[in-house]
Amino acid sequence: MALLDVSGISVSYGRVNALKDVSLQVKEGEIVTVLGANGAGKSTLLKAILGAVPLKSGGITFADRDVTRAQPHKRIAEGLVLVPEGRRILISLTVEENLKLGAHMRRDGTAIAGEMDAIYARFPNLAERRNMLASCLSGGEQQMLAIGRAMMAKPRLMMLDEPSLGLSPLFVQKLFELIVELNRDGLAVLLVEQNTGKALSVAHRATVLELGRVTMAGDPKTLADDPRLQAAYLGAGEATPA
């Protein structure tokens, strides 16, 4: 049984069809990556799964519940979270205030405090800067803060939208090590990423979008050897330093 089941969804912006009959699944404990060029519909897919954009057709099930018409806050409460492209942290707030925002719908104060300590243990740089404004963090540290904030929502599945964008090679390596570590701890991950080589290296399954449609899907190693994917994506999309 899939944790997330996206079944034949379509999304339109006016006359523009952003997604056309897209289906994918994420099982418990899986990393699934979605690849594609700019404008392929990858970010729209994540927003549709979260409920931030309406569906024209199709359905979405999460944790055995039909969430097709559920509001985003209901999906987040069920354990479905999104780390958006560009991180979207609040730079006018401190590191700790940003982390607390991730738990704003929770009421289990003791558990929240324990998880805050665990995040600081996982991200020592954030612990050292907990009372500093988030604007003082480097790009890589801001990405770690965005992921830490998402972890405070106690997710079962984390969606990551272009997490390596604009990061130095060192932070890109740390980021993908973190994704693998979180997955080993039991977190399912849906990863949208233009760094094709890195994404395929950590994924259990992969899907390729082109112009809003699924054109390839399956085992990452098999896809990595596909001449079409190699020609279109591999070797293009490596991260550049911030």
TrEMBL record:
GO terms for molecular function: ATP binding. SMART domains: AAA. Residues 4-236 form the ABC transporter domain. InterPro entries: AAA+_ATPase (IPR003593), ABC_transporter-like_ATP-bd (IPR003439), ABC_transporter-like_CS (IPR017871), BCAA_Transport_ATP-bd_LivF (IPR052156), P-loop_NTPase (IPR027417). Keywords: Amino-acid transport, ATP-binding, Nucleotide-binding, Transport. Belongs to the ABC transporter superfamily. This is Branched-chain amino acid transport system ATP-binding protein. It comes from Xanthobacter agilis.
